[in-house]
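Box 3.1 — From sequence to structure: Ankyrin repeat domain-containing protein
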Amino acid sequence: MILYILFIFMVSCSQPVNPDTPMPNTSTTENPLINDVKKNRIEAVEQALKKGADVNTRDSKGRTLLLLATHDALNDMAALLVKYGADVNRQDDIKDSPFLYAGATGQTQLVKLFLENGAKFNVFNRYNGTALIPACERGHVETVKLLANTRNFPIDHVNRLGWTALMEAVVLGNGSEKYQQIVRILKEAGCNLNIPDNDGKTALQHARASGYKEIVRILESE
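Predicted structure (token representation):
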């Protein structure tokens, strides 16, 4: 019986593959609209949207068309998508949204566009942070200025690490001119200077410990 089974197996393995037999599909076909956005084909995208294509189409990682445009700083494409109702707050699989990503990467023009088109301040990134906090960490002065002076923006929001925007500018910055500007902007916008981190240390204490004399002066001045 065993020999018979082996014989059948060997015969079946030796049979040629019928070229007309459909093979299993192991590849995934990306939505053409996604590809058009990535390649900045504005006319093609607009035509698709006019015909009823979903402006909030997502890719395999949950990224919307608008988030993909934001990733590549395609400002005109982003403006087109917003015009057709793209959601500036819709998050992908790692909790990035167009608004949050634009803030984190210092794309001030897009941040302004998204603020004017429904950006929500209670949608947070994977660190439970706002668009402002990573902007401070990365030294995006103009973006910080815009967000810090936006009405009702939660300037003192504390993220999962226990840090505010001010704390990130001090702890993760290097004390250089752009971080000095950011600290000044946050202070003038009315941020709370005394919110401590999870270890009970304030931004001022961190600035002193790091030897950031100008930031210390800014924080201590009236």
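Summary of the box: The domain at 132-222 is CATH 1.25.40.20 (Serine Threonine Protein Phosphatase 5, Tetratricopeptide repeat).
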